[in-house]
Amino acid sequence: MTQTQSAVSFTGAVRTFGAVRAVDGIDLDIASGETVALLGRNGAGKSTAIGLLLGLLAPDTGSVELFGAEPERAVRAGRVGAMLQDARPVPRVTVGELVGFVVSLYPSPMPVARALELAGIADLAGRRVDRLSGGQIQRVRFAVALAGDPALLVLDEPTAALDVAARHAFWDSMRTYARRGHTVLFSTHYLEEADAYADRIVVVDQGRIVADGTGEELRRAAGGNLVTVDPAGRDPQGLALLPGVRSVEVRGGRARLRTDDSDATVVALAELGAIRDLEVARASLDDAFLALTSGDARTPRDREAV
Question: Which residues have a Cβ under 8 Å from the Cβ of 35 and sit 6 or more positions away?
């Protein structure tokens, strides 16, 4: 059986800035054709990891490969397209001229009209880039990233500055592109986007991968459900010993129990006579993200190894 080549491969990658280990021994494989979301708090190491992936930075130790080769080779060959946050609009050129120029740099590019159409800016082709709104400029960046018809598309906060309608249009375009067998890696602060559009979600914290799985796997890793109850004078932290409970948090006088087994937790609460104002809810991805980046949960792989 032929093994699918990895589009992205980090092996023990480390990158430091002075005393700060921005990327701290990351191991990550992304198969060709996957759509992967990269999540993390500000300063977690996402931008540094993307810099390593694109060859903008070199790892101090370990390695990063794209399609089995150094990132620079894949970028030069036009196999990688990137949409970065810090790109600035070029003055005195139109959208069509800019995308056309970038297309001319690649060996097997996407037609200009197709790139503009996918980015939703065909009607802006004659407009000057430096006179566009922030949301329109963001879509121009997307068209530029598509220009080389890359096998791997890297998107850093792609829907920043977009309104709700434009965000939906963007993801429709991205899914159309991904369905053609392309690999997509995107970072976002919109957790619902990661849940809705990624095959996998990779969570980075303090330079390390703390979770890697589907949205549902991440919820389970963080404690799949929340049981909220009025502790009625009991020490809320004592409820941490109940079956299934992973962690206890008190908000507004109510105890929030993150649990792997809400049924067992509720039965135990009933036996204690502690079911006053009881609520059971499925943990959201926001809940899972907060738990995973505060050290309260293990990754799906960690839990399998226990």
Answer: 174, 178, 183, 184, 185, 186, 197, 198, 199, 200
Exposed/middle/buried for 230, CB within 10 Å: 0-12, 13-18, 19+?
middle
Read off the pLDDT band of 223 (50, 70, 90): low
Give the separation between CA 99 and CA 112, rounded to whole angstroms.
6
Computed over every residue of the chain, the mean pLDDT equals 89
DSSP-assigned letters across all residues of 12-52: EEEEEETTEEEEEEEEEEEETT-EEEEE--TTSSHHHHHHH
How many CB atoms lie under 10 A from the CB of residue 239? 22
| The pLDDT of residue 301 is above 60 | no
Q: What is the pLDDT of residue 258?
A: 86
The mean pLDDT of 109-113, rounded to a whole number, is 96
- Give the contacts of 301 (CB within 8 A, at least 6 positions apart): 212, 213
Q: What are the tokens at 68?
A: 């089995």
**Which residue from 43, 42, 47 is spatially nearest to 20, judged by alpha carbons?**
43
pLDDT for 299 equals: 42
Residue 109 DSSP code: P
> Residue 4: is its pLDDT beyond 80?
no
Q: How far apart are CA 299 and CA 306, in angstroms?
A: 11
Secondary structure element (H or E) that encloses residue 212, with its range: strand 208-213
Two tokens at 59? 């790892």
Sorted by where each starts, the structural domains of the chain and their CATH numbers stand as: 6-218 (3.40.50.300), 223-305 (3.30.70)
Could you give the CA distance from residue 130 to residue 169 in angstroms, rounded to a whole number? 22
pTM of the model as a whole: 0.81
CA 67 to chain centre: 20
